[in-house]
């Protein structure tokens, strides 16, 4: 007998098994351990099977959420995986790092009377089950169209766009500047949140779809966008290079040794594997007192990474209060459990160095919250005369990123915004250059993995239409 809605509502949200905080704070193994089959089916049984589900509208990649959850509840994990892959080429990644609580789960009807269905946890379970037990099956692939598409950047926007275009029969090549594909998925997100073998498996799946990936290939240096289209014969280009240029505060002492941008710090640790030194020859100097500046997910990644690298005191400095932090609540909670020290309503005014040019302290000023700013959060205002000093031997600045200007500077006629991001049509993702599209952080500025993936998906539709004789791709409407 099927469960009644009342019976479904009585099932509590299933807890995610995790490493103990005292253990995980000293290793880079994944924190969340994932559901087993019984737990996944029990969580899926909480879905009310709404006649008019609202969860799909909260999913940037348009997964048929009720369908895949119903299949999980029935124990049909293979078809649940097929349903996921119909919409999303990166489910094992999205199930781990997407802010479901602010998107699909926020729209879940169950959440009106309790906790939402764990949609992200079920997505992760299904993707992991397929990879580990079910065997990855390829979807139907359309006959070759004879059209070639270049994807610049192998982050979530580029990979999603590549996968969708490959399924539509186009010949797709991804150009990645670094030596491993994955973009921010590899160099930005630590292994304890997103294991590197998960990213590799998702990339390998795209290769099986026919996507070619060229690494250590810097578009804008080795070839330009014009070279791709005019000399190498690509019929369309998608730019998904992200927002990898660090932002600093422009305060005294930022050039001291030991002051890192989050980009450099996390790239050294994640992509270049400095945490495995001496197995990998990219060490970081040891640091015992680390201060991380910022309140977003990148700041959380940097401070939790510092703890795992042996910091005796890993501190997060944030100019607003805990309530205003943009980081996921789950990540904040994990950091608190692991022993990260939070300093709220403070802001650096200068970094102090020793006689050898290494940072030894940060001078802070206390803040108070004033009127809301453009983000809707209350603006932090300095409190005069409240300066104080904290001793440190490393600082990581994680206050946002800008777009790298290389593509824009080497592509004549490509319109950009005052922030340096690429202008696109909001519907088609077409740029001012015919046949050239863009999406993800290079358009929006720093955002989330799933929003970038959604942009890649919608851009793929537009590119497919363009290649099949639709729009010429140049109707830029700003």
Structure overview:
Helix 13 (297-308) links the parallel strand 7 (289-293) and strand 8. The protein contains 17 helices and 16 strands. Helix content is 32%, strand content 16%. The strands form four sheets. The protein has a five-stranded parallel beta sheet with strand order 3-2-1-4-16. It has a five-stranded parallel beta sheet with strand order 6-14-7-8-9. Strands 10, 11, 12 and 13 form a four-stranded antiparallel beta sheet that branches. Residues 472-478 have low confidence and may be disordered. It is α/β, with parallel strands linked by helices.
Lay out the secondary structure.
Layout: H1 5-9, H2 21-24, H3 37-44, H4 65-73, H5 77-87, H6 91-97, H7 119-134, E1 148-152, H8 156-167, E2 171-175, H9 184-187, H10 196-208, E3 212-214, H11 225-230, E4 236-239, E5 245-246, E6 259-261, H12 262-271, E7 289-293, H13 297-308, E8 313-318, H14 329-338, E9 341-344, E10 346-353, E11 359-372, E12 378-382, E13 388-391, E14 394-397, E15 401-402, H15 406-409, E16 436-438, H16 441-444, H17 449-467
